[in-house]
Amino acid sequence: MQQQRRRIGILTGGGDCPGLNAVIRAATRSAIYLGYKVVGIRRGFEGLADPVQTMPLTIANTYNILNQGGTILGSTNKGRFSVKVGTNQLRELDPALVAMVRRNLEELEIDGLICIGGDGSLTIAWQLFRAGLPIVGVPKTIDNDLRGTAFTFGFDSAVACAANALDRLHTTAASHERVMVLEVMGRHTGWIALHAGLAGGGDVILIPEIDWTFENVCAKILARQRMGRRFTLIVVAEGARLPDGGLVTADASSADRQVRLGGIGQVVAEEVGRRLDVETRCVVLGHLQRGGEPTYFDRCLSTQYGAHAVRLIEEQKFGQMVSYDPPDMTSVSIEAAIERLHTVDPNGAGVQAARAMAVSFGDTPDYQNPFPNSQIKQETYAEQFNVSPSAIGVSHFDDYE
């Protein structure tokens, strides 16, 4: 005899991002149509510990939230449930805290809990699942650093914000002949910087996955100047390490949360200005990338994630995370998704495309064939753009239209 359906719980953990409400809406509607009652857990995992904080979720109170940013349930990325602290160090949840969550879930009569979160939140979810709790995951992070899925929701919206900023910086940089540095989020991966740099016409992209030097960055700027381009757009990921291997952090406090990255943009701007005696400015987008309404792509992706998360509960596939494997929605184990970060491949298609457009990653002052398997010689480009091969050595060819 089939077990009587009771309730599904939904929580949003970690940093907020566009698309959270779209997932809540889709999961709520899907669950109700299948005969479940739905309860929202307020303030992330903290709402599952004493004192319990919940709210009923209905079709009525999730009716008009598809395009709203943020989360109607609230979220937190610090407190009793922090399992990632410092610079990505892991720790186990307190067994007494896990026992409290188990008791509260039983009292709430929740048959399945949908945990919407990124790397940190899904690590919490995995530890709770290992303790025997009925958990399914939904991949949420603007950083796009979760494995097992083509895209996390929130990423496209963050890229759109950063690319729009580059569009705006381009005109003011050109007008005043300045070097503009845009610092974007992404933690220890460079997905936002890479995609925004491609979409917004960045000249230099600095990411954690590719080592770089100030000498190479300056060589690119000087090459542009020699060709009459007296401005440069630099996109730098907050987690890009300095040439000496150090990270720039916004604070030293990491007792109950991961260290906050930030500040490398200003370091790059000041050092480039000092070395080249050029006027530089730095813009840090920060939480602008997390706010606002989701893009249409993220709304569609979030809706599919929410509906298919309910399907996983219906099929009793606990310990799984919904996965987007275009054009299908599948699932992978939460453990596989959090095993290690999904980072940018330094030889991947995105980096190759950027190099083909003469974007510098600060790793070399010389032109590199972006397609290693091809036989294209730099003399071919020299002939095409009517410059000498030696000029291409430091200047590339993006300044010729």
Features:
single chain; 401 residues; alpha/beta; Rossmann fold; seven-stranded mixed sheet; four-stranded parallel sheet; elongated
Tell me what you see in this structure.
- The protein is of the alpha/beta class and 401 residues long.
- The chain folds into two domains: 7-154 and 294-326, Rossmann fold, CATH 3.40.50; 157-290 and 344-395, Rossmann fold.
- The protein is built from twelve helices and 13 strands.
- The strands form three sheets. The protein has a seven-stranded mixed sheet with strand order 3-2-1-6-7-12-13, sandwiched between helices. It has a four-stranded parallel sheet with strand order 9-10-8-11, sandwiched between helices.
- The protein is elongated.
* Record field, number of beta strands: 13
Query: What is the rounded Rg?
Result: 23 Å
Can you tell me the CATH superfamily of the largest domain? Phosphofructokinase domain
- The shape, in one word, is elongated
- What is the terminal-to-terminal distance? 71 Å
CATH topology of the largest domain: Rossmann fold
Given as residue ranges, the uncertain stretches (5+ residues, pLDDT < 50) are 377-401
- Output the number of helix runs: 12
How much β-strand is present in the residues? 15-25%
Number of domains: 2
**How much helix is in the residues?**
25-40%
